[in-house]
Write a structure and sequence with these properties.
The protein has two domains: about 70 residues, 60s Ribosomal Protein L30, Chain: A, CATH 3.30.1330.30; about 160 residues, 3-Layer(aba) Sandwich (Alpha/beta knot), CATH 3.40.1280. Helix content is about 35%, strand content about 25%. The chain contains nine helices and eleven strands.
């Protein structure tokens, strides 16, 4: 079964990765650009068929209508094994792995992947069940970062946190009820940052598995950021600390 990746940047970045494709779809009469030319070149180099279709066909296929005249039918997303991430980061003094405790919104998942990749993180870990699937919406929201950042899918978040601890990661959970401000917490080095689900936050069992809990300071009238925004702030705080 194919999945659809839509949008010029998302398709371009995905073609640059090792992800497999059935074909690339380009709307007839679409205005050319450097990115579009590169998409055609990359597809040709990889022997991926490029098919011109009516724009209405892309509109019908697109979940969000944000295809920009370009889409690609990709083979099912290939998740990375946790063991591969741990092997690659075994000797790293600084490593960021973000663990999502059943985040269900695809837009949030994509935005988180984008932020973690830009911040220099090593992986995003999601649960097999009750989590957003990696779909075209995720690829689009990530601006192509799903092609470059390791995404790991696990059966049990709690057990995964223990594995990360055994590999030298300090497990930090984000909770608006935490007493410790993120700015005062040890967020440098090998960090597994655990973010909770939309609305419910961290589950009790996951919260208890964390080494410490942190919160962001709130000065406005709205009491919190959404999970993607909060992850961005914390990921870049880790990047700032780890760069010094």
């Amino acid at each position: 079964m194919s999945e659809l990746i839509e949008g010029r940047n998302a398709v371009f970045e995905a073609l640059r990765s090792s992800q497999g494709f059935r074909r690339v779809l380009i709307a007839r009469g679409v205005k050319t650009s450097g990115t579009l030319d590169e998409i055609r070149r990359l597809a040709q180099a990889a022997s991926i068929p490029v098919t011109e279709v009516d724009r209405s066909e892309l509109d019908r296929m697109s979940p969000r209508g944000a295809h920009q005249g370009v889409a690609a039918e990709a083979l099912p997303f290939r998740f990375t094994e946790l063991s591969d991430v741990l092997r690659r980061t075994a000797d790293a003094d600084a490593s960021l792995v973000v663990v999502l405790d059943h985040v269900t919104d695809p837009g949030n998942l994509g935005a988180i992947v984008r932020s973690v990749e830009v911040a220099g993180g090593d992986a995003v870990i999601i649960a097999k069940d009750r989590s957003a699937p990696v779909t075209a919406v995720v690829h689009k929201a990530s601006a192509g970062a799903t092609a470059h950042l390791a995404l790991v899918r696990v059966t049990n978040i709690h057990q995964t946190l223990q594995v990360l601890k055994d590999e030298g990661y300090w497990v930090v959970g984000a909770s608006e009820k935490a007493e410790l401000l993120a700015w005062e917490a040890p967020l440098e080095g090998r960090i597994a940052l655990v973010m909770g689900a939309e609305g419910n936050g961290l589950s009790r069992v996951v919260q208890e598995a964390c080494d410490l809990l942190v919160r962001l300071p709130v000065r406005g009238r709205v009491d919190s950021l959404n999970v993607a925004q909060a992850t961005t702030v914390l990921a870049f705080e880790w990047a700032r600390r780890s760069a010094t």
